[in-house]
């Protein structure tokens, strides 16, 4: 019997929405939430529940997701945080269930369309950064994160550009037709990253991902490791020189932009110098500036971890404990420790941070299995997993849905290719 066109469209609708969802990531966060809500509605009406459950049940990411559910549930029971505040924090630890819902969608053409959608979003973001640097972009709600530095959203835009650039480079490598426009698009996004984003984490992530991509495809590993050692030496010299330079006039990105009218490259350079000098000064005296508060947050959170390293303090307990500990200091009003590893350890104990690390290990394991199946999606899984591990050391990548949902939307694209039981 011929397929019913309406039934086919309803079945494929979740994939259609997932294929355009990545472009929403470079616009205000409400666009991402609305897009994901539309995906969930399409997921519900698309039916085929038996097939969806089979795909989720057989996917390797089900195990670490359930493990974190068990760890966070035990923490809730152990510390008696069964209240509204505790429930909100508990739900944050279940963010990987969103990934499982996306992985329930059958793999298909929507994946490549989603990659192209992500690249289109990166090109749009780079263009908006260029326009902002030329002062041609109005400071409206739609473009505010491009015109001024807005913390987490601006950081996310930088991370997306870094990931997109290296993903583009990977696609250029695996395509048989190395057309000039693919390379031009890569360079365009890289320029947008370093001229406009002003994010130290994103700039450093780009180089980390390029090194990983080079190592994954290097045939002469000995020469590659030698080049890596040379780069490490160059980096050490650069850090030493940055520590000896005079302190910049300010370390606040917004002040550099508004008061001193610095370009994006100058802001990124000054913030890098500030970072080196902040680490140096904090190591000597324990003093920090407003821009260097993360060092103080890390130090105070680590002391909280040491108070209860095995069982943690309980779900949603970091914030009240930290506000009490940091009372009167510059970082008192911070709402996250800007480090997922410390947060999970502080609230869930040693089991929490081990569970987080196992989640990342399982992501890499999916990449290894895809590589054995000779899938081109293995490298993107590595790229995204490394990005989450790296950025999670400096930002609330999983604690903040602004970061976490965006990363999982991208991660679902290559991970959907995994097929249980398929042999290489």
TrEMBL record:
The chain crosses the membrane at residues 20-49, 61-78, 114-134, 154-172, 179-196, 202-218, 223-243, 342-364, 376-397, 403-421. It is found in: Membrane. Keywords: Ligase, Membrane, Transmembrane, Transmembrane helix. The keyword Transport does not apply. Residues 189-356 form the O-antigen ligase-related domain. InterPro entries: O-antigen_ligase-rel_domated, WaaL-like. Pfam families: Wzy_C. Its main location: membrane. It is a multi-pass membrane protein. It comes from the Bacteria. One of its GO terms (molecular function) is ligase activity. This is O-antigen ligase family protein. It comes from Undibacterium cyanobacteriorum.
């Amino acid at each position: 019997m011929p397929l019913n066109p309406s039934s086919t469209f309803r079945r494929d609708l979740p994939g259609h929405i997932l294929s355009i969802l990545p472009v929403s990531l470079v616009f205000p966060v409400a666009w991402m939430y609305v897009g994901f809500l539309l995906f969930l509605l399409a997921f519900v009406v698309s039916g085929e529940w038996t097939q969806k459950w089979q795909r989720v049940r057989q996917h390797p990411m089900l195990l670490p997701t359930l493990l974190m559910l068990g760890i966070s549930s035990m923490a809730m029971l152990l510390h008696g945080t069964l209240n509204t505040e505790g429930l909100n924090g508990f739900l944050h630890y279940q963010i990987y269930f969103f990934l499982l819902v996306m992985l329930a969608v059958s793999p298909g053409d929507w994946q490549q369309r989603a990659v192209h959608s992500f690249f289109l979003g990166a090109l749009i973001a780079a263009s908006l950064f260029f326009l902002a640097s030329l002062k041609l972009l109005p400071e409206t709600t739609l473009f505010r994160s491009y015109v001024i530095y807005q913390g987490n959203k601006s950081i996310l835009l930088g991370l997306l550009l870094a990931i997109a650039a290296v993903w583009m480079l990977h696609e250029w490598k695996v395509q048989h037709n190395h057309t000039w426009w693919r390379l031009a698009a890569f360079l365009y996004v890289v320029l947008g990253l370093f001229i406009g984003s002003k994010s130290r984490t994103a700039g450093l992530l780009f180089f980390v991902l390029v090194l990983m991509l080079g190592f994954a495809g290097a045939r002469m590993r000995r020469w590659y490791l030698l080049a890596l050692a040379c780069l490490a030496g160059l980096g050490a010299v650069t850090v030493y020189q940055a520590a000896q330079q005079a302190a910049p006039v300010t370390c606040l990105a917004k002040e550099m932009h508004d008061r001193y009218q610095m370009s994006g490259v100058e802001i990124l350079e000054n913030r890098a110098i500030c970072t080196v000098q902040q680490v140096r000064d904090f190591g000597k005296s324990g003093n920090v500036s407003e821009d260097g508060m993360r060092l103080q947050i890390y130090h105070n959170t680590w002391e909280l971890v040491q108070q209860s390293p095995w069982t943690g303090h309980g779900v949603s307990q970091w914030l009240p404990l930290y506000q009490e500990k940091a009372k009167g200091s510059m970082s008192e009003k911070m709402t996250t420790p800007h480090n997922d590893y410390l947060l999970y350890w502080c609230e869930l104990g040693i089991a929490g941070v081990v569970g987080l690390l196992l989640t990342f290990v399982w992501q890499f394991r999916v990449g290894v299995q895809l590589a054995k199946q000779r899938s081109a999606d293995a490298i993107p899984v590595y790229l995204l997993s490394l990005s989450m591990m790296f950025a999670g050391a400096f930002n609330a990548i999983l604690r903040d849905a602004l970061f976490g949902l965006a990363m999982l939307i991208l991660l679902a694209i290559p991970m959907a290719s995994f097929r249980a039981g398929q042999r290489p």
